[in-house]
Amino acid sequence: MAAARARSGERRAEIVRAALEVIAERGYRGASLAAVAERVGLTQQGLLHHFPTKEALLVAVLEEHDQWDTGGGGGRDGWRLDLLEPLVEYNAMRPGIVQTFSALLGESVTEGHPAREFFTRRYTQVRAELAGVLRAEFGDRLPGGLTPEEAAPLVTAVLDGLQYQWLLDPDAVDMPAAFRGFLRLLGAR
Amino acid sequence: MAAARARSGERRAEIVRAALEVIAERGYRGASLAAVAERVGLTQQGLLHHFPTKEALLVAVLEEHDQWDTGGGGGRDGWRLDLLEPLVEYNAMRPGIVQTFSALLGESVTEGHPAREFFTRRYTQVRAELAGVLRAEFGDRLPGGLTPEEAAPLVTAVLDGLQYQWLLDPDAVDMPAAFRGFLRLLGAR
DNA sequence: ATTATCTATAGATCTATAGATAATGC
DNA sequence: ATTATCTATAGATCTATAGATAATGC
């Protein structure tokens, strides 16, 4: 045959990449296995050989992009505040990934959604790590008398909220500039 | 028969209310007409007598709750900054509505989603009105040198972003308190 | 006559299972 | 023997249309 048989790991990676795209376009509930399969030149049943269920495929997508959103800049755990702005800048160049993330986050608040626990855990962790970073940078008090623990959910909220506004209307919202504005509010220079 | 025939307007209102609930639970794409119909004691085909298509029902839901999110507090156009905090407080008491809104916002960034234009327009309008409110309150410069136009998308982002964190983990996030913290950052008392 | 509702049903999908076929690795 | 894929198909759904039936309002 023309194409050599890809090793299983490569095939799985291809499928995860395709799933990421289809989820960006239609969300998880709207994404069909057939659409993902077609994108990698497989039948839907062929895809199910690599991932036994649709949910298993979603889990693989979530694991693959575990460093999403707030983690991309600085490696698994050691975030630094000055790496958040470059991360936002980077995200502004890959609307596809941001759209997948945002669509999944939106869906995840509905009942019994398979990504719900993932996001819940992730936000708990992100808030805790951000609080640590903010304390290291600003000490125990930020402008307005906020503690780092009070500011951390706001940083996360701004990151996510700006993504929605930007995805809906990229020309109307300069996501990195807006985020820099927020950092100035926090007192960073 | 037992129940008197409801006037059409009442029936439609019942259906819209049921649709709101089902969308909160499953999102728009995941919400079936049959599930909505069942909730008001109709068959799926009976429901389609009142709304000719599923999309028409969504439009009715969006129109009914046009004052969603940022509008509830102060009447159609005249927002005031000091009514935002009570609005967040009010939202914290109705997770259902917030969940419907958040699920729809998340879905709306996917391709060809029927609510996309609604949200795009809405955010454009919300940012403009918030900028006006911020200018009236703070003048041309806010902390960090932000202009009202730079701060407006941040206010919106914080409102939306906090909702997701709160829906995912209500015990971990005190939404009104977090929002008050953000207002203190902006320099309001 | 119009309005509200129902039954019947067409026509698409969708996920997942069963089982065949062919290539690869011992 | 195992791995990758395919064909066939079961069993659920889902939206929407067609057409019947019964009640309401002139």
From TrEMBL, chains A, B:
Query: Which residue intervals define the domain HTH tetR-type in the entry?
Result: 9-69
Question: What is the recorded name of this protein?
Answer: TetR family transcriptional regulator
Looking up InterPro entries in the UniProt record yields: BetI_C (IPR039538), Homeodomain-like_sf (IPR009057), HTH-type_TetR-like_transc_reg (IPR050109), HTH_TetR (IPR001647), Tet_transcr_reg_TetR-rel_C_sf (IPR036271)
| Domain of life assignment | Bacteria
Has the keyword Iron-sulfur been applied to this entry?
A: no
**UniProt key word Transcription:** yes
- MF GO annotations: DNA-binding transcription factor activity; transcription cis-regulatory region binding
Keyword set for this entry?
DNA-binding, Repressor, Transcription, Transcription regulation
Cite the SUPFAM superfamilies for this sequence: Homeodomain-like (SSF46689), Tetracyclin repressor-like, C-terminal domain (SSF48498)
